[in-house]
Amino acid sequence: MLQRVLLMVGILICVRNAVADPVPPEVPVDPVPVDIFPGEPVPIVDTVSDTVVRRTDQGVDGPLGEGVHESPDLIWGRMGNWVPTAPDGNIYDSGAWDTAGQFFRVDLFFDGLINPPGTLGLAGSAFAPYLYGLNPVFGFVEFDMDASVSTGGETWAQGDRYLGNLARWGGKATAPQFADRVALSGTDVWNDFDTPPYVQRSGEEFHIALLGEEITEIEEINGNADSTFDEEEIWLVRGTLFHRAHGYEEFSFAVGPPPGAYEPGDVEIRWKHWPPPNDTTQVTLIYPLTNQAWVDRSGEPLAVVMNGDASDQNSIEEALEDLAFSAMYAPQGQHDDPEWPIIADWGNQSPADYLIANDWGATLLVGMSYTEPDGGGALFAWTDVVADVLLGDVNGDGTVDAADAQEIDDFISMHDGVDGEDGDTSENGSIMIIDFGWNFSIYDLNYDGFVDNVDVFAVVIPGDMDLNLEVNIADVDDFVHALLYQESGFPPGDWPLVQERGDFNHDGLLDGRDTVGFVNTLLEGG
Fold first, then answer.
1. Is the pLDDT of residue 21 over 90?
2. Does 201 score more than 70 pLDDT?
3. Range scoring the smallest mean pLDDT among 87-96, 171-180, 405-414, 429-438
4. 39 falls in which pLDDT band (50, 70, 90)?
5. Which of 115, 396, 459, 515 could form a disulfide with 405 if both were Cys (CB 3.0 to 4.6 A apart)?
6. How many CA atoms lie within 13 A of 80 on its CB side?
């Protein structure tokens, strides 16, 4: 114990005498817009400026027009029950958050000016991704309304959803319900429904579809009528933008179309750009939780019976009511379908128990379009996910440590040179990912199409100053040397790794303010 105390004192004295405290970095302008309402919505947390482009085209060389077209970057969000002051008027700018509210509200705030999505050539549409501006956002926001991954999921385009792409960012999901449901490679995405890792079984009941093909009408509330969403403009974007999960369709009695689908065509999403210093784009969905709320919004008479038809009065409650009804009365033969578990547990449930949006779960996957159609059919280059992953947490235990580096090393040893698993078929310490872009690997931390020692050492172990994947007394000399002399004395290729492992307060610097973190880590591991 005395040795440890002396070690700590020695390092602290050394730092105090030799390293002057640097000027704290400038605090950025708070990006939160000014329309904060009373109440307690659930925050949707994301790291600012964390976009990393993940192309999905084979060869990962498809044109994105980077520098011309911005990468969508979610900076924060919130969701909950909403009580608009005037349900039949402007429901966006006056109201209160309240769990008794009859409307669901979700706000997504993107960095800078972000446009509604154009069309991508799907279902006979034109390829026009920049129809509404140079910086469109594409993707899906999924909502788990009963907080259960046992019910709900997506059997259509699961390769374009959160669980099918998260590992492209080099880690497993931090949320425990997704621990064994993340595709670790592109081949996992298309596994059968009842084959691990169960990528289709995300628990999603509804999703926002950020696709231009879903847009049927644009109303410029504040704009110059040039059909381009510009700075400080406000648009109401309408269409089939909020869907119930497609996985339910084969079991549902909902009217459709197609049969079993619940896709209301009158959904409205507002886009609003806030000027500097905020410079954010706010994307807001407010949707009725009950048919009564739909009536309050439209002014039409209330239908006596919820009929499972999204083309007339529609709401979350009606969609969930149909799930409960369908689960109880589906033909017995459907119970043997491998996908039956998606809906089975909705039987005998009361939809009214699931209308508090504060209790829902949410995931988000967004990205940008290629500037021209991809011959292989790739549609998106993903740029941001929520919830985030920890880069290098390949074993999904919530920390990044030597165990993760060892798992990557073991993966290389197991597959190196194996025909059909290693694209170069050579035992050379490197796994070439076959069909990279369409395919991927959670172990390819730098997303270059290879799993090799670069990825092993990309696992950032705080305090591992000598880069041996351990933290022990041998790291002290290198830490003190780095404090005193910075990169001097370190091989040029090693210094960025050393600096990253010594930057305990994550301010981009290795300095005196990182000393306590280093000492604590050293003592905990010693």
1. no
2. yes
3. 171-180
4. low
5. 459
6. 21
- Residue 225: phi and psi, rounded to 5, are 65, 25
With respect to residue 485, please indicate whether it lies within any of the assigned structural domains: yes
Distances (CA, A) of 99 to 41, 242, 289, 357, 456: 9, 21, 11, 8, 47
In a domain, 416, yes or no: yes
Give me the count of residues in the chain: 526
Angle at 151 between CA 149 and CA 156, to 5 degrees: 90
Residue with more model confidence, 123 or 14: 123
CA 292 to each of CA 66, 242, 282, 285: distance values in angstroms, whole numbers, following the listed order: 46, 19, 27, 18
**Continuous segment of H or E residues that includes residue 328:** helix 316-329
DSSP type of residue 160: G
The answer to whether residues 299 and 365 belong to one domain is yes
**Integer angstrom CA distances of residue 26 from 29, 30, 33, 455, 499:** 9, 12, 20, 32, 20
Helix (H, G, I), strand (E, B) or coil at 397: coil
Q: DSSP string of 80-141? A: EEEEESSTTS--SSSEEE-TT-SEEEEEEEEES--BPP-EESGGG--EETTTT-SSB-EEEE
**Cα-Cα-Cα-Cα dihedral of 448, 454, 460, 464, to 10°?**
-170
Q: Cis bond leading into 257, ω under 30°?
A: yes
Tell me how far apart the alpha carbons of residues 520 and 526 are, in angstroms, rounded to a whole number: 10
Tokens of 406: 């060892």
Q: Are residues 11 and 135 in the same domain?
A: no
Confidence of residue 29 (pLDDT cuts 50, 70, 90): very low
Count up the domains in the chain and report the number: 3
Distance between CA atoms of 423 and 415, rounded to whole angstroms? 10
Among candidate residues 157, 115, 122, 119, the one with its CA nearest the CA of residue 137: 115
CA dihedral 227, 233, 237, 243 (to 10 degrees): 130
133 — pLDDT class (breaks 50, 70, 90): very high
133: domain range?
43-161+202-386
| Tokens representing residue 487 in the block | 């990169």
When comparing pLDDT for 462 and 345, which is higher? 345
Assigned domain for 396 exists: no
In the predicted structure, residue 310 carries a pLDDT above the cut 60: yes
Residue 501 has what pLDDT? Answer: 81
Tell me whether residue 425 is in a domain: yes
State pLDDT tens for residues 85-104: 999 999 999 999 999 999 99
